[in-house]
Amino acid sequence: MYQSNSVACRCFAWHKWTLQHPPMTAQTSNNPASDQTVSPPAYTPPRPQALSPIVSLVRLIMQGDGDLLSLLPADAYRMPMGHLGYSRRQTLIVNDPQLYKPILLDPTDSYPKNDLMVDALAPLVGNSIFVSSGDEWRRQRRMVDPTFSHMRLGAAFPAMAAGVAAYEAELDALATSGEAFSLDLAMSHLTADIICRTVFSTSFDTRASREVFDAFALFERSVAQVEWKRLIFDAAWTPVPQKPQVQAACQHIRTLLGEMLDTHQQQAIPPNDICTEIVNARDAETGKTFSHDELIDQLGVMFLAGHETSASALTWVFFILTQQPQIVARMRAEIDNVVGDGEVGFEHIRSLTFIRNVFRETIRLYPPITFIPRVALHATKIGRFNVKRGAMIMISPWTIHRNERYWKNANVFDPDRFSVERESELVAGAYLPFGLGPRVCVGAAFATTEATLIMARLIRRFDFTALNAETVRPVARLTTRPKTQVMLKVKARSNVVADRNPPLRTATGETTSRVARN
Ligand code: HEM
User: Fold this and answer.
1) CA 332 – CA 358 distance, rounded (Å)
2) What angle do CA 76, 81, 84 make, to 5 degrees?
3) Going by CA atoms, what residue is nearest to atom 17 of ligand 1?
4) Cα(289)–Cα(125) distance, integer angstroms
């Protein structure tokens, strides 16, 4: 009784609030592009309609399409903190950096990763770094951190570049045939290939890596970041049974990862790659390495966190670029300036600041991880809210990045908001695509380097056109994705030399071919 009454009350409260506060409208950006005399018109890329709470609830229950974004009422984009008003379990959304920083930086382990997400991911990644908590997580983090140091990133760079070179060959073939292709799928293949090359020193062409990808795609389609129906109806810490096909897909992925690990370990000279680093990682206190099962857990995370998020980010980058020719022109000018005619090297990445700002702005508007969910282990108070034990705390890069309190013209795409000249406009803590605090993404520098490299190389060589731009809409599944596939056509730029780079070497020293993979 209490639950249904409370749901009704909150729905009504939301409804009242929505009536008093009309939906946000995009405003015109007054930011002139730094190297242009006339400002291009402000561009507001696609976003979901913020529906009334009742309509979104009914839609969620009836359609069950896992589209978390359509659940968010307009107010979720404005308030510092509030109830997400439908669930049996208390669910709070926290948008104010002053209120969520203590949660994400909490040294007492009072806000671990929430159980719904842990239950969803555990069949795939066990009790790995992404889902574990407390001392167990600290041990794993200490062991994994050095793998992503700047030096290690430099060592992984040639393998990343080899993946991009192989993909350029595919784009050349598509440009010649004139065939349309799915941007989402292309970016998933490219980033999975880069993960295979940097983690295992093998390309995506092997049977095992292709099978991991396919089983992973099934997992991704079936599993949500947070099971909203469970959140609405279940009490805190109710176990989430996974569907048999999800369990089977996870088991299959783990078996294949085990095979890839075994093949990797059989090599006489261990390759200079991420897998070798993780195999050799030792706990500074006990001197112990990861067990075989723990290694599979960590490699599962690298595959999951390492390609799905980057694929989401790059899908939005390239979609936006099809709509923004003047941004593409500025990116090309920067490449000419910084790199000239040669190959994009690790040493150039830091200086490609405008390209990096395009990436940053894209993941502000389309953060791959839409929600960073935590659970309150104890009853407490946050701001003026009494928080119950077991409450779900949603810290949402999606709503924070689009909140007008922290971002001027929040829905407008404006990469120059990250320029040095405008640094003072940024609100501390209000940008968190990679999370914040001790659990910040270990792969943030890896992902930024990878994206900058891919953007620079592909934009220099190709022109992309979107065939269905007007129907593109974001949804939040495991990551933020277009609801339906974005179809592109590609043309090779006639004034750019197609293959001026010397043959590339992978982390193992193998020379890559430029022949399109099938
Ligand atoms: C654009 C790409 C990426 C984005 C937006 C992203 C975002 C995030 C976010 C938001 C978190 C924190 C989650 C939380 O606090 O609940 C996280 C954690 C993590 N990410 Fe990433 N990530 C990206 C790429 C990568 C890559 C390339 C790797 C590895 C190759 C990676 C590995 C991890 C791991 C292992 C964690 C768990 C860290 C911990 O809990 O200690 N991520 N990521």
Assistant:
1) 12
2) 55
3) 441
4) 18
Residue nearest to atom 6 of ligand 1 (CA): 434
pLDDT tens digits, 286-306: 999 999 999 999 999 998 899
CA 101, 107, 111, 115 torsion: positive or negative? positive
Kindly state the tokens that stand for 465: 């056109």
pLDDT of residue 60: 61
402 closest CA partner among 53, 117, 93: 93
pLDDT given for residue 160 in this prediction: 97
Could you give the dihedral angle defined by the CA atoms of residues 6, 8, 12 and 13, in that order, rounded to the nearest 10 degrees? 10
Q: How many whole angstroms from 270 Cα to the centroid of ligand 1?
A: 26
CA neighbor of 98 nearest in space, from 358, 429, 327? 429
Q: For residue 43, give the 3-state DSSP assignment.
A: strand
Instruction: Please say if the pLDDT value at position 351 is more than 70.
Output: yes
Q: How far is 339 from 20, CA to CA, in rounded Å?
A: 53
| Chain segment 378-394, per-residue pLDDT in tens | 999 999 999 999 999 99
Q: Is pLDDT of 161 > 90?
A: yes
Closest CA to 375 of 387, 364, 358, 359: 387
Of 503, 509, 505, nearest to 269 (Cα)?
Answer: 509
pLDDT (tens digit, 9 = 90+) per residue, 180-202? 999 999 999 999 999 999 999 99
442-486 pLDDT, tens per residue?
999 999 999 999 999 999 999 999 999 999 999 988 899 999 999
Q: How many CA atoms lie within 13 A of 302 on its CB side?
A: 27
Q: Cβ(197) to ligand 1 under 6 A? A: no
d(CA 491, CA 161): 21
Give the pLDDT confidence score for residue 272 in this predicted structure.
Answer: 93
Nearest atom within ligand 1 for CA of residue 372: 16
378, 382, 355: which is closest to 456 by C-alpha? 355
pTM value? 0.88
Using a 10 angstrom Cβ sphere, with 0-12 exposed, 13-18 middle and 19 or more buried, the burial of residue 473 is middle
* 328 touches 459 (CB < 8 A): yes
392-395 and 91-94 strand pairing: parallel
- Please tell me if the CB atom of residue 435 comes closer than 6 angstroms to any atom of ligand 1: yes
Distance 472 CA to ligand 1 centre (A): 26
**What CATH code would you report for 2-492?**
1.10.630.10
Residue 209, helix vs strand vs coil: helix
444 CA distance to ligand 1 middle (Å): 7
The response to whether residue 372 sits with its C-beta less than 6 Å from ligand 1 reads yes
